[in-house]
Write a structure and sequence with these properties.
There is one protein chain. The protein has 14 helices and 4 strands. Strand 1 and strand 2 form a beta hairpin. Helix 5 runs antiparallel to helix 6 and helix 6 packs antiparallel against helix 7. With 401 residues, it is an all-alpha fold. It starts with 11 loop residues before the first helix and ends with a helix. Helices cover 69% and strands 2% of the residues. Strands 1-2 form a two-stranded antiparallel sheet. It has 2 domains: 184 residues, no CATH class; 145 residues, no CATH class.
Length: 401
Amino acid sequence: MRNKNNIILGDRVLWVALALLSIFSFLPVFSASSNLTYVVGQGTPWSHLLKHFIVLVFGFGLMYALHKTPYQYFKGISILALPLVVLLLIYTASQGNLIAGANANRWIRIPIVGMSFQTSTLASIVLLSYVAHLMSKENPKLYRLKTSIVPLWLPVFLVVLLILPANLSTAVLLFFTILILVFLGGYPIKYLLGILTMGFFMVLLFILVAKAYPDWVPNRIDTWVSRIENFSNSEDIGGNYQIERAKTAVATGGLLGLGAGKSVMKNFLPQSSSDFIYAIIVEEFGLVGGTALILLYLIVLFRIVVIAHKSDTVYGKLLVLGLGLPIIIQAFVNMAVALQVFPVTGQTLPLISSGGTAAWMTCIAFGMILSVSAGQKIEENTSKESEDKNENPLTILSEAL
């Protein structure tokens, strides 16, 4: 039983690190939202700040509710939710949304509320929890390729392939996280190499079919190729508009930065409040601020590893690593794009970038991680209370009588 007298359970250091990330995010979001206000013509900086505040408050509410929920419940929830997220992904992929001729089927519109919802983020959490549950079961059939195709790899390939046409980076990150999970779960390496090869040929087949029949298979292949070419050809300033502006912002920041709200490149850099917010952070807070942010994410990573190590169940270990590692990888990919280490991917900076459902899914993932941590704390307290009870002379006397 969970101790209802404790308001906040789980890893306190992780709670503090997540709170610091969220509190800090208000400064760059408020500053960078001027791009949406004066360039795009959407809202005001204060309205964007209020929206970001509401999103994070609701997200931390979800995190709090989930961290109070025993993490063993997530096994059954993932099994029941998996067919639902597959249907959501099919509906999302069939909408036919195009931007400049490229597939833009990432979001669905929530009725009444009017907010957009990125179904791939929810599908990733459900699938990772499902895979962690499967790999925690002592079932020899799951460790043979032929008998693991239907229960394990069929849902994985189905979800990944539904995400792939509109969001390559998310699909690749999800697939490789699952490979890490099943490897840690003891899946034979020789079969993993076969699955990796199969995944490569399925992506190659998709590209060939999409190029041959672009009207039948909406895709973003031309966008992917363009981003890779722009990344490899650093001399093409026109093709690297976003990267060049991001590099200018980073170079302008120097050691201490220009100061909060004093970014210049936020008015010229597209997606300055989401995909390229790290460049604005370095411009305003300098190398010191950018490094401090990296250290915060490293602290979060360290606590994720600690929680996974302390978990007494295989499911708890795999769940924490499966949900935590993609968030940290996403954060470093986002920062690497701003520093021109990676091509443009479209990945946001977790708990920092402005957004809606992406921030909520991040909070849900951390709520599940903290639920595992909370279970550890309760077991430790119960064990300690039991030891104290056994050492109490009055307890020993009463039991003897």
